[in-house]
Design a protein that fits this description.
heterodimer; A: 271 residues; alpha+beta; 5-stranded antiparallel beta sheet; 4-stranded antiparallel beta sheet; 14 strands; 26% strand; B: 789 residues; 7-stranded mixed beta sheet
Chain lengths: 271, 789
Amino acid sequence: MKPVAFDYARPATVAQALGMLAGNAGARVLAGGQTLGPMLNLRLAQPALLVDITRIPELAAASEDGDSVAIGATVTHAAIEDGRIPDPANGFLARVARGIAYRAVRTRGTIGGSLANADPAADWLACLSALGAEVVVTGADGSRRAPLAGFVLGAMATALAEDELLAAVRIPRLSRAARCGFHKICRKTGEFADAIGVAVVDPDRGVARLAASTATGAPMVIEAAELDRGVPPDAADIERRLVVAGLTGDAYDLRLRAVAVRRALLEAMAP
Amino acid sequence: MAGHIVDQGIGARLVRKEDDRYMRGRGQYVGDIKLPGMLEVAFLRSPLAHARIKSISIPPELRDRIFVAADLAGVLPIRADTTLPGFKSSTQPVLATGKVRHVGELVAMCIAPTRAEAEDLAAAIELDLEPLPVVADMLDGRKPGAPLVHEPWGDNLFLVSNVEADFEAAKAKAAYSVTRELRTSRQVMSPLEGRGVVAQWHSRLGQLVVHTSTQQPHIVRSGLAECLGVDEGQIRVVAPDVGGGFGYKGILCPEEVALSWATRKLGVPLKWIEDRRENLTANANCREHHYVLTAYADADGRLLALDCEATVDSGAYSAYPFSACLEAGQVGSILPGLYDFPHYRCRTYSVATNKPPILPYRGVARTGVCFALEVTLDALARKIGIEPSELRFKSLVRPEQMPFDNIAKRHFDSGDYPEALRRAIAAIGFDKIRERQQRSEPDGRRIGIGFGMYSEQAGHGTSVYAAWGIPFVPGHEPALARFTPDGGLELRIGAHSHGQGLETTLSQVAHSILGVPHDRIRLVHGDTAETPYSTGTWGSRCMIMAGGAVAAACDELAARVKKIGAGLLQAKPEEVRLEAGEVVGPSGRIAVADVARTWYRRPQDLPPDADPRGLEVSMGYKAKRDTGTFSYAAHAAVVAVDTETGELEILDYVVVEDGGTLVNPMIVDGQIWGGAAQGIGTALYEEMRFDAQAQPQGSTLSDYLLPGPTEVPEIRILHMETPSPYTRFGQKGIGEGGAIAPPAAITNAVNDALAGLGVELLVSPVTPRRIVEAISRVEVRRQAKADAA
C-alpha cells in the first residue's frame, strides 16, 4: 500500500514546529519515522501535514547538569548505542540501545519518537521508567516536566496534546556503584519484545526499582527495598508482586514478565 | 583436455552463472518494467470472509477508472477441476460475483497513474456487504449444519479420499499403539518478490503480452486463454527474473486475468505489484492440516499399521492448476513414509472454508505429513520404551528391497534409508548428546535430540497426473538446442529458473555432452514466444525433466556434429569421436564451434551428404519410468529448551540427503540450506492465525514471523549418491526436500527434551507459548492428581 497524499514541512526551530502543529489540524510530528512510516504506508495514519523535527538542532543534542542528563528527542538509538551522548547510567543506555530492532532502524529511530509513540513493547519505555526519567514537553505556553509514568496513558497513548512537542527526556544520574539489568524476551532478533524486565539497583541513592513491560501501556514499576540483602526473589514472588501492583495478562504473559524481571535482577546483582 | 569436461560437467561445483546479475542487483523483475503510458492497478478487496454483496457504489465521476465483475463481459471464472471421483467443483470469480468467500477476495479493479492514486480510488468505493455465517475452521466446516461456502454442494467437502490395505487385520496383531491429534498451522509463502503483473495489448500483433512473476509461463497462458476466451497464440506470457517461487508462483492469479482483460479494454499497459499486505492477508496461504493418527507396532517394535484421518483446510476455491485436492489427495500416498509395514488405512478430507485458497508450498503436503508421522512414531517409541531410531531401523525399507513398491503403491526407485539414519546418528553425535542429557545443563535448559525422515517424489509425470485429472498433465518434456553461427550453443526450455540455478546446471549437462565452454552456452527460458511448451517448474522436476530433455537434444546435436565433422576430416562417421569440444578423427581434429561455423557460414565446405536438418534440434524426454524419483533424507536436530520461557535454541542440525547423481553439489547444498531455513520457519515461527470470523490476524512481517539469519543455525549436509535407475544421469529431484523434515526433527527434539516432564508438543509451529502452556497443563494435571491422592 502507499500513503494518502500529505504535505511535508521541515521546520528549523521548535517555535516554527509548534506553530505548524497549532495551525494545522491533523498535523503529525515525524521524527525517525520507524513506526509512522509503516503506518502511513498502511494508511493507518492519514495526516494532512507531516512536521519533520529532525533538523531542529536543539532537539538533536544532549545536555548535562549535576544530577541528570537530558537527551534531545531526535537523538537516535544509534547515537546512544555508539556512546555519542553522555550516559547517566554507567553505560546502561548504550547496552539497551544495542538491542533495539536492527542497526538500520537504530540509525533513524529516535528516543523521543519511541516515547511519544508509547508502544508498550518498546525498549526505552521500560528502561527509562525504571530509571525514573521525566519527559520535557514544550508547548505554546513553555516547557513542563512530567514523570514518564504519568505521561503514558495507555498503549500508543500519551498525555501529549496535539500542539505539543516532546522535546527531551531527562534521566537522573546514577551513582558509580549502581547496577542495572535489562532482559528482553522476544521471538527473534530485532522483533518487538514479548516481555521486558528491568532492574535498577543504586544503594547510594536508595534506589531499588524493578520494571516490567505491560501489554496495555506504561510499564509496571515496583520498588524492591530488600534487594540490598543480596538474595533475589524468585519468579513466582515477583509475579505476585507485579500482579498486586496491577499487572494483568494471561498466565503466560504474567510468567514471561516475571521471568524477564528476575533475569534482569540477576544481571544487576551478578558479581 | 578430457579432465576439462569432468571438471565442469556433471558433478562440478560450478559457480552459478546467474549470480553475476543477481548479486550485483542487476536482475530484472516485473516491478522493474516501465512502459510508455503505463497505468497502475490497485484492487478493492473484501474486508469480510463471507458475505453477500448488496451493492458496490462507485462515484459516477470515477466510473471509467473502476471495474467490477459486471464489467468483465466474456471473462470466465478460474476453474481447476480434477477427475477424482466425488470432487466438487468451485469457480473462482476474477472479481467477486454475488458473494465474497474470503477476506482479500478481489471486488473491484481501480486504475490510475500511480498506485497511491489507485488506492485512493479503491477508498472511494462504498461496498455494502451482508455478513453471512463464516466457516473459519476446517473441523467446524466438516460438521453437518455448518454454513456453506458453496451452497449447491450441500456440504463443504471438495473431496473425501480413502486408501485402505487390509487394515482390520492389524488390531489383533498389535502389541502397542499410540494415537495422536496433530495440527500444522496455516502459513503464508513469503518469497522476497511477491506476485506482479504487467499486461499490454499489442494491436499490431493482435497479441496480449503478459509479464508475470510465475514459475509456469505456459500454464498461465493456457489459463488466461481459457478465462479470456482467446486463442493461446494470441497470448505471450513472459516470466522475467522471478524473486523466489516456492509454489506461490505456480498458480493462475485472478489479478493476471483482470489486468489482461483491462489492458485490451483501455488500450494502455497496466501494472499491478502485490504488496506484502496483499501477500499475507489475501493470497499466499498454504500448509494447514489436521491429523488424528494411530500407529500400531508388534511385540518386537516393528511397525504394523497406520490409521489416519487427515483434514486439509483447502480454503474457498480450487486454485488453478493444482486444484483444491493436491494436498489432501497426496496425504494418503505419502503417509507411509520410508517404512515397510503390512496394514494401512487413511481417509482424508479436503474442506472448503472462508479463507484464501490453499496453494502448494515447497514440499507441498509432505511437510505436514512428515511432521504427523515422525512425531507419532517418536511417541510410539517412547511408549514401547525404545529409542526412536531403533523403532525406525526395524521398519525402514531396506536397500536390498529396492526398487520397492510400498503399501500406498508408491514405487521407491533406489536408496539406502537405514544408512542415511546411521550417518545422521553418527554426525549429530547421538551418544554424546544422550550422555550430556544425563547431566543437567549449567543454564537450566533441557536438551533434546530428534530425527525426521522423508522421501520426496520428483519428476513424476504422465501416469501420475493423468490419474489426478487436473488442468494439465505433463508429457514429454521438450528442449531445444541449437548452435549459433559463431559456434555458441543456445538451449531453450519451457520451464523457468528462479533460484534453482538451471542456467548453470543445464549448461553443465550440455557441456558434458558437447564440450562447448560454459561461456558459450546460453539458456533461454521464461517466455512462451521463445521456448517450447512445458508445464513449468514445480515438483522438483527440472533437473530430471529439463535436464533429460537438454541431454537428449545435445545427444542428437552431437551425432549431427560428428557426422559433419567426419566429413570435414575426410573420415568415416564411425571413426570419429567427440572429445572436449572437438570432433576427433584418425588424422586430425576440428572444434565443434568450427563445425557450426562451417554449417552456417561456409556451407560450400560441407560434405555433400550433410544432414539437411542442420544444427538445431528439438527433443522431448521422459524418464524410463514416469512415477518419479524418490530422493530422501534423514534430518537430525539438537535443541535446548528454556522451560521457564519456552524459548528454544537449535544447537546443531544435520541433513543426510541422497539426491542421486548431483549435477552441481554446491547448488544442491544451497537448495537444502534454503529449504531447511523455510522448514525452520514452519517448525518454529510461521503461523497466520485467523479469528472466529476468519479474519487474518497478521498483515505485516512484524505479525507474521519469518526466521532471519540469527534464527537459522549452521546446517551440516552430508551427501549420499545412489543414482536413480530411471533418469538420464541418475539424478533425483531434491528442490523441496530441505523444507520437509525440520518441523518433524525439531518437534521430536523438543519432545525428547521434555519427555522427562511428560510433555509432548503436537502443533506446529512449536512456539514458546505452546511449550510453556503444554508444560503448565501437565503440571496442573499432576497437581490435581496429587491433591486427589
